[in-house]
Amino acid sequence: MLLSAQERAVLERRTLRTASAQALRARIVLACAGPEVPPIVSVAASLQVAPDTVRKWRRRFIAARLDGLADTPLPSRPTALDVDQAEAAVVTAPDSTSSDLADLREARRRIARLQAELAIHRRAAELLGGAAFPADGPQSSG
After folding, report:
1. pLDDT score, position 126
2. DSSP 3-state of 92
3. Which of 1, 56, 93, 97 has the most beta carbons within 10 angstroms of its beta carbon?
């Protein structure tokens, strides 16, 4: 994996932040850089990290260069308060019916089931060593 002079300079500056995650990521990329790419296991051993950690950041750097080393936000989900507020809005709406409330409760049950299923699939993908689908979840065809 080859680096431009600008990328190398940015990565070397990042390594000066001794206790940061960005410094570790920069060290990983720098250790993997050059015409002769060393084995992931030897880079991991020299930096005292897991081979999967080296693999992850090397892969992200190759895919998106320096932008790939940035922290990615965790997917957000509505809090229980948000859901409760939505339910209260339906209940207090002047034109709401009991079937609206029943539909809302059924939707909450379906969402909970789907979230549990998604968590199982993500864990399985993690255990298998890769993402089976993007972070925003599987895309349905219908």
Report:
1. 80
2. helix
3. 56
